[in-house]
Amino acid sequence: MNRSDVLIELDQVNKSFGAFQVLKGISLSVKDGEAVCIIGPSGSGKSTILRCINGLIPIDSGSIRVGTHAVHKMKTEKEMRPLRHQVSMVFQQYNLFPHRTALQNVMMAPIQVLGHDPKEVEVRARRLLAKVRLSEKADSYPGQLSGGQQQRVAIARALAMEPQVILFDEVTAALDPETVKEVLTAIRELVDEGLTCILVTHEMKFAREVADRVCFTDHGRIVESGPPAQIFDAPQDPRTREFLGQVL
Amino acid sequence: MFNLDYSWLADPVYQGWLIRGTLTTIELAFASSAISFVIGLFGALALTLRIAWLDAFIELFVEVFRNTPPLLQMLFFYFTLSTIGLRVTDPATGVSVPLLSAFACALISLSLFGGALCIEAFRSGLDSLPRAVTEAARSLGYSRWQRFRRIEAPIASRICLPALTNIMTNQFKTTSQASVITVPELMYYAGQIYNDTFRTAEVMILVLFIYVSLVSLLSWGMVRIERALAFPGYGRAH
């Protein structure tokens, strides 16, 4: 792997919540344009890995690098601002701002945080809502949208920051089975366009189709990682085999 | 059975008193409510910073002002602020007068009383915010202050608007106690009028009517604001 291509690099990351060690020496590197899926049982630390990458959760030891940012050295929200510009996140519970319309949700941060020109941002926001097929819902409030629609607004909101990386945290876990597909379609398009994505997911079929690489985590460790064909068809570790045996 | 006599109401002096008193009551109620909101907002914001000494200070402030009678607070401010030396010498007459007028003392005292209640109201609003909303704002690069201003405060104030309406209507009624420290508001002039005319029942019925009208108007206005600011998914909108 050419080092200059590596966009995100975690090295021996440890994190404990009280006495419970969530991450036990996580090392992971993600190349520019790569789509990496993280799978594994609940409580294995998947979501925590994502939250450490964009600095929402400070780590105890180890290092995290995103582009030129040394995330583990950042202490204040102010220092993290350029990082958050580069790394967007989409959450399991959508986390839209309930007091603003879909369009306003997409426009807020680029204007208020990045200081971009409101007119230019509106053009961008409408284009992104069209991309996730929600143009006609621009003036609806989150409370008036279905889960799948809210999640697509959240994806448009993440994209409006013009990030290099998007972190997806179990984005279909709270959705009805019928609406899962519309969200996965939107994500698949982004991956096809070459946006760097890290996805924590329980959708094994989707992971197999979309991922360049799959990491299996268990008890705070990355047990096994490799191309989807290898992980799903010929898992090496007994724990991976056991997990896949249960979910597939 | 009642023999109500409102002939005194034709006297322009009494009319002037009633109008001036009503205006002072409105002024005192709105000014103290506005300051209370500001105290409440910043107090609740300060509590989110989780600084131990600041928390202790705010908690003490809330306990003291929420748990003592507003009348006592007014008397306390009225008599202590002038006796501890906040006096100025009037350059025209050369007489030493209190720096703060009775109105100013009532305003300070009502603002602090209402402020203590508002801190609690805003705090409960902020506490009820979904954590997810805060996390989303952080992930989008909002600073602490921006997050509060753009996202947390707008949502929290909608959640606690009914509580604020309560505080404001109470505040309006509590202004009547300022008559005790000689603030010339509605109750004060009412007393003047019945001392002059001995028409106590008539004056009280009229004043009652004025308060009911004003406070009803206020709560009607607040409900309108509540409706206008409501967004789907919270409260009873749509």
Low-pLDDT residue intervals, each spanning 5 or more residues of chain A: none
Tally of individual helices of chain B: 9
The amount of helix of chain A comes to 25-40%
Largest interface: A-B, 28 and 24 residues
The helicity of chain B comes to: over 70%
Question: What is the CA-atom radius of gyration of chain B, in angstroms?
Answer: 22 Å
Identify low-pLDDT runs of chain B: none
Gross morphology of chain B: globular
Distance between the termini of chain A: 31 Å
Strand content of chain B: under 5%
Number of separate strands of chain B: 2
Strand content of chain A: 25-35%
CATH topology of the domain at 26-182 in chain B: MetI-like fold
Task: Describe the protein.
The complex is a heterodimer of chains A (about 250) and B (about 240). With about 250 residues, chain A is an alpha/beta fold. Chain A has 9 helices and 10 strands. In chain A, strands 6-7-8-3-9-10 form a 6-stranded mixed β-sheet, with helices on both faces. A 4-stranded antiparallel β-sheet of chain A has the order 2-1-4-5, with helices on one face. The longest helix of chain A has 16 residues, at about 175-190. Chain A starts with 5 loop residues before the first strand and ends with a helix. The relative contact order of chain A is 0.17. The mean pLDDT of chain A is about 90. Chain B has a domain at about 25-180: MetI-like (MetI-like fold), CATH 1.10.3720.10. In chain B, about 75% of the residues lie in helices and about 5% in strands. Chain B has a two-stranded antiparallel ribbon. In chain B, α4 (about 100-125) runs antiparallel to α7. The chains are: A alpha/beta (about 250), B mainly alpha (about 240). The interface of A and B includes residues 85, 89, 97, 142 and 144 of A.
